[in-house]
Amino acid sequence: MSIRDIVLIVFSASLYALMGIATYLGIFAPAVGVVRFWPAVFIPAIFSEVFGPIVGGIGAAIGIFISDMYVHGNALLSLSVGVPANFIGFYLIGYILNRVKKDSKYLFIASIAIQFIPLIMTIALYFYGYLDTALFIIYTAITAIAIAVTLLALSIARRYILPRELLAYSIGLMVGSLYIGIGVWLFSQFFPLPSGERNLPVVASLLWFLWTYYTEIPFLLILTPPIVRAIERWYRRV
């Protein structure tokens, strides 16, 4: 790891932590109860895409730990769930983009199809009685908005958003969100959560996965690609 990478990691972690804390305080986004919207996800995604998976992954891991210490102060929860979930998710984004260099119609189809995986899970949860009607409507609405944003972004901003980017963002965030959902559920089986809850039912892991993915993917799609394109243009001029 070079000195440049270390500097970039520190910069990425600082920005990620600061925006995460500001979001929690309701400065950049409203804080509603214990549910936090997380627009800061675009920051480590940019670093992962432009500077590589190690920079993006480690920066995200450090940044979320700092943010967690301010928000709930539970180091064990952060180190066992938040830190690895962020590292894996944002590492995957950079790794996939480094490996997949060309776009094709097959990537376009795959990048759209993958958005429906959590939707299918939402319908299954409702069908088997794990979601009541009110929650089903809420999750379905969030799903519809996220998918609509995805399709709109690809249709009107092709020059800024590439199919391989959407695929990488989706896979990275989906894996990270799944880790968070399962990790928080497992943690609750042995230790109390910061909210005091314990022994959550296994379905809670799927609910948190769905909520995390569908409330964060729009920020990745809308904010990350234009900033990456701007950085690329700046690099070409230097």
TrEMBL record:
Any idea what this protein is called?
QueT transporter family protein
Q: Show the stretches that span the lipid bilayer.
A: 6-29, 41-66, 72-94, 106-128, 134-154, 166-188, 208-228
The answer, when asked if Secreted is one of the entry's keywords, is: no
Write the record's keywords in alphabetical order, separated by commas: Membrane, Transmembrane, Transmembrane helix
Has the keyword Transmembrane helix been applied to this entry? yes
